[in-house]
Specification:
Two copies of one chain form a homodimer. Chain A has about 120 residues and is mainly α. Chain A has helices at about 5-15, 20-35, 35-50, 70-85, 90-100, 105-115, and strands at about 20, 55-60, 60-65. Chain A has a three-stranded antiparallel sheet. Chain A binds a DNA duplex (30 and 30 nucleotides) through helix 1 and helix 3.
DNA sequence: CTCCATCGTTTACCGGTGTAATCGATAGGC
DNA sequence: GCCTATCGATTACACCGGTAAACGATGGAG
């Protein structure tokens, strides 16, 4: 169940509130993305065909719900990148960012807390 | 300078040894990827056109070198994913993996060491 | 000097994606 | 009951990416 980046924006709307009508979705994403209403409709349809969302009738329109869980998607995307770039290991990625000096003090503190938290 | 995943496999060969002829590259990636020689040639050409690799003549053939640095590529890809999925922050990604139970004891140890290493 | 093998270059083709307009059904206003 | 606004569905189209074949130049064998 692979979804494209544009499709994932629509999923994003449905992951924060559910169910939503096509109008709702358009209201939530079209502005920020610079998309026309038609574009959103296309994306909704593609997601339906892929089975990533489901629809239930509500009078003259449909209400949509995500069938693909946000978590599963995050998982697949993240693992995919890790596999492609860092041989599946998380530490090299973190190391890469630290070497780049891309970590703020806050990042570091947060990571530290996380790591201390999960070893027992 | 965006390169596709197939193209990045070719870059991978050039990042480990440089310069390489087209034949070398084919030898190094075609088997593992199930690609024909023709496919590798196409990828080389697309990389040339994108300016991601350079070529210097060597008799009847060319030798290729990466112009795009592996590090810059890793950086762009990683940051891209972080931005798309985790609002640009590293900690949520790590947190995501830990919640998934996707971290081995070794991972944790490694991360711990890393984090202790870079705060001063 | 000629022919062939071998490069690199050009062209091909299909599916997916971004982006959107058009069409056909239908429910609600009058 | 009929017309129109509004849905969702269908169609469009260009570009990219994966995969590969065909073509054209050219250097080396004989």
């Amino acid at each position: 169940m692979k979804i494209s980046t544009a499709e994932s924006v629509v999923m994003g709307a449905l992951w924060t509130r559910e169910p939503l009508s096509a109008e709702d979705i358009t209201a939530q994403v079209a502005e920020g993305q610079g998309w026309s209403e038609a574009t959103v409709k296309t994306l909704i349809n593609r997601l339906l065909n892929k089975g990533a969302i489901g629809a239930e009738r509500d009078g003259r329109r449909y209400l949509y719900r995500p069938l693909l869980a946000r978590d599963a998607w995050l998982e697949a995307e993240s693992q995919g990148l890790l596999d492609r770039l860092f041989d599946g290991r998380l530490a090299p990625l973190v190391s890469h960012f630290s070497e780049k000096g891309a970590l703020t003090a806050e990042d570091i503190a947060e990571l530290k807390k996380l790591i201390e938290g999960f070893e027992p």
